[in-house]
Amino acid sequence: MDCLHRMRIVSLLPSATDIVCALGLEDKLVGVSHECAIPAGAGAPKLVTASTIPANLSSKQIDVAVGQQLQQSTALYTINEALLRKLKPTVILTQSLCQVCAVDQEQVQDLADSMEDSPVVVDLSPMSLNGLYHSIRQVAAVTASRGEGQKLLVQLQRRVHTIAERSETLRRRRVVFLEWLDPPFVAGHWNPELVRLAGGIDLLGTAGQPSTKTTWQQVQDVNPEMIVVACCGYSIQRSMTDIQQLSGNPHWEAMPCVKGGQVAILDGSQYFNRPGPSLIDSLELLAHLLHPEMHRFPASLGPANSLLTRLSMAS
């Protein structure tokens, strides 16, 4: 109990913040990343990171800038070292899964090792739903919250089982799932697994593997029944900007699924790209999208039009 009382958590990625809050530890957060939503009950955690990529760039410009900085081994994010030391965290949650997603894990570890009271650094790098469950166990263990962690796991796994069981006998819809549009990137990691559990076949993505760059020719060649778009870090409104720029693209406009309005744009900031508890919300959203006759829209998430938009040729 004394350990919990003295706990001071810094979370450097949104999914870790989500896990902390799901375990009821939001009041222990003293620092978060610039991309984390400040949860209710968290007090006023300090923002300890910033992006070196300007937010007003287009998707194409962001892709080019990220590629250049990675090639030059230039950091995509900065961390306020002085502030982090001042916060005196006992636990720092970070990741090594994706160089584009958060502060470099080695940089965080080196900084932690140099602090007077070295905090525990926890690397959360899931590639699948099982990886998500492991992340929850990791956070629960380091925060002396194993009981709450087990309860959370039971709840999440029950919801996954419900979706998978309902979808098992349904006709599999042929899907291309994109996490970026300019240039197009096929979603990887856990997302092909979500497609399978929701009753679909992911035509281009591979479960447990990183996202990959593709072309509109390749998307057209596999002839999907539906294209699902959840751009990493983007709201529906931001993704729609990129969708509108596809007007005139011959591969895009020739696809039957585009002509037939079988293109769905989802919130890729809150869902699908954050490997925390919201991945299960994402699964429920996807199941409703693929098979609405079997899966109701998860009303607990809010109005459907705030989370999901279907594209018509008129738009």
Q: Could you provide a short overview of the structure?
A:
With about 325 residues, the protein is of the alpha/beta class.
Oligomer: single chain
* Average pLDDT number: 91
Q: What is the rounded distance between the termini?
A: 56 Å
Poorly predicted regions are none
Helix content: 25-40%
Strand content: 15-25%
- N to C succession of SSEs: HEHEEEHEHEHEHHEEHEEHEHHHEHE
Q: Count of helices?
A: 13
Specify the CATH class of the largest domain: Alpha Beta
Give me the CATH superfamily of the largest domain.
Nitrogenase molybdenum iron protein domain
Strand segment tally: 14
Number of domains: 2
CATH architecture field of the largest domain: 3-Layer(aba) Sandwich
What is the overall silhouette? Answer: globular
User: Over all CA atoms, what is the radius of gyration?
Assistant: 20 Å
Largest sheet: 7 strands, mixed
Class by SSE composition: alpha/beta
CATH topology annotation of the largest domain: Rossmann fold
Comma- or semicolon-separated keywords:
315 residues; alpha/beta; Rossmann fold; seven-stranded mixed β-sheet; five-stranded parallel β-sheet; 13 helices; globular
Describe the structure.
This protein folds into 2 domains: 2-152, Nitrogenase molybdenum iron protein domain (Rossmann fold), CATH 3.40.50; 172-311, Nitrogenase molybdenum iron protein domain (Rossmann fold, 3-Layer(aba) Sandwich), CATH 3.40.50.1980. The model has no long low-confidence stretch (mean pLDDT 91). It has 13 helices and 14 strands. The strands form 3 sheets. Strands 8, 9, 10, 11, 12, 13 and 14 form a 7-stranded mixed sheet that branches. It has a 5-stranded parallel sheet with strand order 3-2-1-6-7, with helices on both faces. Strands 4-5 form a two-stranded antiparallel sheet. Helix 6 (129-142) packs antiparallel against helix 7 (146-167) and helix 7 packs parallel to helix 13. The longest helix is centred in the middle third of the chain and has 22 residues, at 146-167. The protein has 315 residues and is of the alpha/beta class. The chain has helices at residues 2-6, 14-22, 59-71, 81-87, 105-113, 129-142, 146-167, 191-197, 216-222, 236-244, 250-254, 256-259, 278-290; strands at 9-11, 29-32, 46-47, 49-51, 77-79, 91-94, 120-123, 173-181, 184-186, 200-202, 212-213, 226-229, 263-266, 308-311. 39% of the residues lie in helices and 17% in strands.
